[in-house]
Amino acid sequence: LYLEYPKRAVGHIVHTEKGILAVEKNKVLIPPLWNKTFCWGFDDFTCCFGNYGSEKNLTTFECMADWGKCLCAVCPSATTIITSGTSSVVCVWELSLVKDKVKRLSLRQALYGHSQAVTCLAASVTYSIIVSGSDDRTCIIWDLNHLTYITQLPAHGASLSSVGDIASCAGSYLHLWTVNGQPLVSINTTCSPKSCIACCCFAEVMDWDTRSIVITGSTDGVVRVATKSPFSTGHFLNIYFLNQTTGNKCGKHLVLFRELNPSLALTGKPSKNSPAVTALAVSRYGSVLCIVAYAWQRAARQPLS
Q: Looking at residue 239, what DSSP letter applies?
């Protein structure tokens, strides 16, 4: 696997037919061509658009400055960008492109619901939802089409660090929910009190397979793979531990069945000071599941796979 290695911690990874694309934190790639980036986190609270592989910002907008410091953003489509941060308001922006050039970024809707800074966002076009997580330990589901409130998940045990559709991560705990916000199952991914989940993503092994595979990357530098299945634990190898949430009417289990240590893969030796895994992406080739995880490493400037 080869790509132009980012100079800072990786924030977003996309797997395309041409290869793997990765950008630094405070940047996201814009679908469906993935050749443009949206970036934020500047001291003047502006946001910028640029071309992938170039550090030059082509277009700058000041419209986000009214909403405080931006901490997170997602881009579910070529015309929609969702941002949030210290203002606690989730902002949905409409992006106007003319002949592949960014012409306008206008606020479509402001979504109010959190009481503290929003630290993570996820959006699913398939399910038409936005998921936002906050320092106030709440996670809210919004309707992506109508831009309205759907439901709020029960309070988590720590500030939200990552959300997916629909998985939420707080501290070292991974929680799975239905699209309606009903709890399915949760698991403590590590026994170390110093390790927290920094990112997560979903994958399916086969189109006909009903199991959900959830991959997490943590601050201890370890990638962990878990699966939700109605079957017993005897169907899995390399099981580390099992935590079945009480009151789960479906009777399903969440099993952490593999830990992947990038430092061990690179050097052949486990490291006590592995850099945090900051972004994840999954690509499926037939029955082979390829997991790509990137962390910021000064010593080994090469992708982790």
A: -
